[in-house]
Design a protein that fits this description.
It is a single chain. This protein is of the alpha/beta class and 279 residues long. Helix content is 51%, strand content 15%.
């Protein structure tokens, strides 16, 4: 089997490394990618092809990219000669997942599986799950592909859109909690009770970003992706006749942190300062 992976970011490279470790020849497209992406792909053992046309030999293509790019990536693959199973494993709304399904249905020859990755890059067992929904045979093929890896596949009953709905429902609580914690600490810092809030939250809610505020810094590193994810969740909420106000507010919080993309040295103090400047 040959699998195509678009594109090896932190999550994608870890997923690709798991496939390679289980003997799956895994391709990535080097055209337009930067030095950091190339390094991750090489470390993961991925095989470079110059352009999307090289994916025609793949039986499966896995899309793991920023949410805002998911439709563009799908359209680019749909313009190639690829015939197989297309797994969209991005944090997109159920409506956008169905839009990608329709895109490939109109072209023909490709089965779309809806996927949602929950958890960190799957470097070790028991940390990350891949939820799947869509056509039974295609879902089964994706399940069997990942079953031997540390990314645990979980099949949901139902059509394309179900996996995305579960992923975004979980992300709503999980990621907004970082934005809420930052909001609380920004307020406390302004009034000079930052350390007291840290002590109180640590005693009452010890295993949360509120109780361990240094964890908020990790959200700063990933805010460039989370901003788009909040937009996707907001769109899903509107489709479900649920208010999207909190999602739009969280989107604004993460937008204030996009300058810290992949910055492992960013501190909570820097993130709080960025929030104050955003007003």
């Amino acid at each position: 089997m040959t699998v195509g992976l678009l594109h090896p970011g932190a999550m994608g490279a870890a997923v690709g490394a798991q496939l390679v470790a289980n003997g799956v020849r895994t391709l990535w497209v080097e055209d337009g990618r930067g030095t950091a992406t190339r390094r991750r792909a090489e470390e993961a053992g991925l095989v470079a092809v110059p352009g999307l046309g090289g994916l025609a030999e793949c039986s499966i293509v896995v899309s793991i990219c920023p949410p805002a790019s998911s439709l563009d990536v799908a359209q680019a693959v749909a313009a190639t000669d690829f015939q197989g199973v297309y797994l969209d494993a991005n944090a997109i709304s159920p409506g956008h997942a169905r839009q990608i399904e329709t895109l490939f249905a109109e072209r023909g020859g490709v089965a779309v599986v809806d996927g949602g990755v929950v958890g960190p890059p799957p470097h070790k067992p028991g940390t990350s799950r891949l939820y799947l929904s869509g056509p039974g045979d295609a879902v089964g093929e994706i399940h069997d592909l990942f079953a031997p890896t540390t990314l645990q596949p979980v099949v949901l009953e139902g059509p394309v859109g179900q996996a995305s709905a579960l992923k975004l429902s979980f992300a709503t609580y999980n990621k907004i909690s970082y934005a809420l914690a930052a909001q609380a600490y920004a307020l406390a810092e302004h009034h000079g009770v930052h350390n007291e809030l840290r002590d109180l939250a640590g005693a009452v809610m010890p295993n949360t970003p509120f109780g361990k505020p240094d964890q908020i810094a990790t959200a700063g590193q990933r805010a460039w992706r989370w901003e788009g994810e909040m937009a996707e969740i907001g769109a899903a909420c509107v489709d479900a006749s649920v208010p999207d106000d909190m999602l739009r507010a969280a989107e604004g919080t993460f937008a204030a942190w996009t300058a810290f993309k992949n910055d492992e040295t960013v501190t909570l103090h820097q993130l709080l300062a960025a929030l104050h400047k955003a007003l």
